[in-house]
Design a protein that fits this description.
Elements: H1 2-27, E1 65-75, E2 80-90, E3 97-103, H2 129-135, E4 146-152, E5 160-163, E6 166-175, E7 180-190, H3 194-197, E8 202-206, E9 211-216, E10 222-223, E11 226-227, E12 231-232, E13 248-257, E14 261-264, E15 267-268, H4 271-274, H5 277-286, E16 294-297, H6 299-306, E17 313-323, E18 328-331, E19 335-343, E20 346-354, H7 361-380, E21 388-393, E22 398-400, E23 403-406, H8 418-433, H9 450-467, H10 478-485, H11 505-525, H12 527-540, H13 548-557, H14 564-572, E24 580-589, E25 601-604, E26 621-628, E27 637-643, E28 648-653, E29 664-671, E30 675-680, E31 695-696, H15 703-712
Parallel strand pairs: 1-13, 20-21, 21-23
Antiparallel strand pairs: 1-2, 2-7, 3-6, 3-10, 4-7, 5-6, 8-9, 9-18, 11-12, 13-17, 14-18, 15-17, 16-19, 19-20, 22-23, 24-25, 24-26, 26-29, 27-28, 27-30, 30-31
Helix pairs in contact: 7-8, 7-9, 8-9, 9-11, 10-11, 11-12, 12-13
């Protein structure tokens, strides 16, 4: 029997030893660095002599230049544009180019367009007539560019291949570094009704007097970007993700009906030919008036003009220097006003063009909103470099150099609600702000939508608050992104995703990056460090092509802050903020008559935060607080302590407090006053998706809370 017992013990001993060894081997297994504070070197592109490690353009940075000479004719009777252009391409890269790529954005509306085929759709029991008309159009619209010729400058045919919204120009011989190549394209296309068919440009028809307002963009074949990051940026245009374009000079002649009023990118070169003497006098007055808009074409004059249709034409001649795109708006219905804006001693003009249907809303706010945008953005980035900025009653939200198309109409009796007013101002500020991002800080919109929409949405908030300190901001505050970030993870993509491939475009490309920058400025970096770094990035990359790496690196380089943890969490993942209070222990120093050098602490187990009656009131109060982090994002811990006397104190622990333990941390807080409540993120600064764990003692759940949680669940 003893032998059997010894044998059993021996087997158990061996088994225990093997198990212990296996456990030891398990604990000794290696793992990759999963720390939230690891550097971004495994994600960011390697710096080079064009995009440096500091985030600045390198000494060998180059970019191409493309110049355009265009003659455009608008046929108001047929809603048709006919154009011819001479394009001169400057190869400033060190590469030899065998071909050039040209964008044909209007082909998204061609009869053979693939854009409708990649869109999913369904039939609901009830839908708006507008949606029905778009989804089930009875008359098929014959859109898209009709290319009539592609030639060399001598008129000989130039080989080319069209692939949907892209056209390859097959060069007669490779274009050497430093060389230029000129060629010509002629085309025409039918203009879409953007009110019934949608789109970023087009016309709006007014059946009452049979007139049209035209807001025209993407109306000409234009070169793609070529750089050392992407090579040719020739991704197809599917309709959502916008554009990547080169800077250049534009000479543009636009022929319209003689009774039209037109605004466009560039300097108008023949004012005396296209404007009346009275209009010129008012325009000159506007250029000297800085406190309010001056009416250049009155509503009464516009109403008189729109009653008749001139059979004559006139040609508007413009020159635009160093712009990345071109757009214009024209109508016989347009009222026109303007005012001067002082940008650090330089006069810039703010203009608005609008029909009577948009008045008095546009007359009250449009040009003033343009002026405020130029002032605010210039303060946070760089002085606005162009001579004007235009807002057009285009009933959409779309931006181009020096001109943008915006929504907003009052009721038929001229009244308008605050909701309509603030929406119109918001979109106007946003679209005018796009003059800075990406029209000047020229990021690739098709690859990285957030680099223009997100950055612009952030500065937009600052401009709106400058316009009205009580402006009802709907996008950008941390509390406003909580519902999206805490939603269904299968329908959320990281910010660093191509715009065509995300579910909620507005939240992903506009809201979340704007919120991230707001948190950086308000909570993590502070105004001084953030503003200097943001301005540094903006000045470094104006009139250049920045990448996401250039932005991330510039913000760190100019502030001496390691923000890799922030970029990784907010931009490369869909993690959420959720920080809570796991537990609180109360201690006080034990009173002792001994003369030793040791201090003894006694834990007070009284329920709640208040100490028991045995606590010596002359001694300090000590609280051992354990914070946990159910959410994936590392963020600062913002704590507000409420004392027994009703006063409050706020303490912020930097995000780096989580560097050694990503799940929970324990901190001791000592005070001469007794604490009655501890609250996390009391001002909703961090986009915390679950605030039910943010208080100690935990708040009792009310009936309303139960209802909210039920709805949320």
């Amino acid at each position: 029997m003893k032998k059997i017992i010894l044998l059993i013990f021996s087997i158990l001993f061996v088994a225990t030893s093997i198990s212990a060894q296996n456990q030891k081997r398990e604990t000794q297994k290696g793992h990759t660095n999963q720390n939230k504070f690891k550097q971004l070197k495994d994600v960011l592109a390697t710096p080079n002599d064009q995009h440096t490690a500091s985030g600045a353009p390198g000494k060998k940075y180059t970019q191409q230049k493309v110049d355009y000479k265009m003659d455009i004719v608008l046929d108001d009777a047929k809603q048709k544009i006919t154009g011819s252009e001479t394009i001169t391409y400057h190869n400033n890269s060190e590469d030899e180019l065998a071909y050039l790529w040209v964008q044909l954005d209007q082909n998204m509306r061609a009869l053979d367009s693939k854009t409708p085929d990649i869109q999913s759709g369904s039939i609901t029991k009830e839908m708006s007539k507008r949606r029905y008309d778009r989804s089930f159009a009875e008359n098929t619209f014959d859109g898209g560019f009709k290319i009539t010729s592609v030639t060399n400058t001598n008129g000989s045919n130039l080989s080319h291949t069209i692939n949907q919204t892209m056209m390859r120009i097959n060069l007669p011989k490779p274009l050497a570094s430093g060389a230029t190549f000129s060629f010509k394209i002629k085309w025409w296309y039918n203009i879409n009704n953007h009110r019934t068919q949608g789109g970023r440009s087009g016309y709006e028809h007014f059946p009452k007097n049979n007139n049209n307002n035209y807001v025209i963009a993407q109306f000409f074949p234009r070169l793609c970007v070529y750089d050392n990051v992407e090579g040719w940026q020739n991704d197809q245009f599917w309709g959502r993700s916008e554009f990547a374009l080169e800077f250049g000079d534009y000479e543009v002649n636009i022929t319209t009906p003689a009774d039209h009023m037109l605004g466009a990118t560039g300097v108008l070169k023949n004012e005396r030919e296209v404007l009346t003497k009275k209009q010129l006098e008012r325009l000159n007055l506007a250029k000297k008036t800085f406190d309010k808009p001056v009416i250049i074409v009155t509503q009464k004059e516009a109403e008189k003009i729109e009653k008749k249709k001139s059979k004559k034409t006139k040609t508007w001649k413009f020159f635009a220097e160093n712009v990345r795109d071109y757009a214009f708006a024209t109508s016989r219905k347009f009222i026109w006003d303007g005012m001067a804006v002082d940008i650090n001693g330089k006069t810039v003009m703010a203009y608005s063009y609008y029909s009577k249907e948009a008045n008095p809303l546009y007359g009250d706010h449009s040009t003033r909103a343009v002026a405020q945008t130029l002032k605010t953005y210039s303060r946070y980035t760089f002085d606005y470099p162009y001579h004007k900025a235009i807002s057009v009653d285009g009933q959409m939200g779309m931006e181009y150099p020096q001109i943008c198309f915006n929504p907003g109409r009052p009721n038929p009796d001229g009244t308008y609600s605050d909701r309509v007013k603030y929406l119109m101002i918001k979109v106007t500020v946003h679209e005018v702000g796009h003059n800075f991002f990406p029209m000047i800080v020229n990021s690739d919109e098709r690859k990285w939508t957030w680099m223009d929409e997100g950055l612009n949405s952030f500065v937009e908030m600052l401009a709106e608050l400058d316009y009205d300190k009580n402006f009802p901001i709907t996008r950008g505050y941390p509390k406003n992104i909580v519902k999206y970030m805490g939603g269904d993870q299968s329908k959320i993509a990281p910010i660093m995703s191509k715009g065509d491939n995300v579910y909620e475009f507005g939240n992903n490309a506009y809201g979340k990056p704007a919120t991230a920058l707001w948190i950086l400025r308000e909570t993590i970096m502070g105004h001084e460090l953030f503003d200097y770094a943001f301005q540094t990035y903006s000045k470094r990359w104006k009139f250049k092509h920045p990448t996401p790496e250039d932005f991330f690196r510039s913000m760190e380089d100019a502030s001496a802050m390691d923000l890799d943890w922030f970029w990784r969490g907010w931009f490369y993942t869909t993690d959420v903020t959720d920080i809570g209070i796991k537990g609180v222990k109360k201690f006080y120093k034990k009173e002792s008559n001994t003369n030793n050098n040791n201090v003894e602490f006694v834990e007070d187990t009284t329920e709640g935060l208040s100490f028991g009656s045995n606590k010596n009131s002359k001694s300090k109060f000590h609280y051992e607080i354990t914070y946990n982090k159910p959410g994936g994002l590392v963020m600062p811990i913002i704590v507000e302590f409420t004392y027994k006397d009703g006063t409050k104190e706020k303490k912020t622990y930097p995000a780096q407090i989580w560097r050694l333990n990503d799940n929970q941390v324990t901190k001791v807080f000592s005070s001469s006053k007794e604490i009655t409540n501890i609250s996390l993120d009391p001002d909703l600064e961090t986009a915390d998706v679950d605030t039910s764990n943010n208080n100690w003692p935990k708040k009792k759940e009310t009936k309303f809370d139960k209802f909210k949680n039920k709805i949320k669940g």
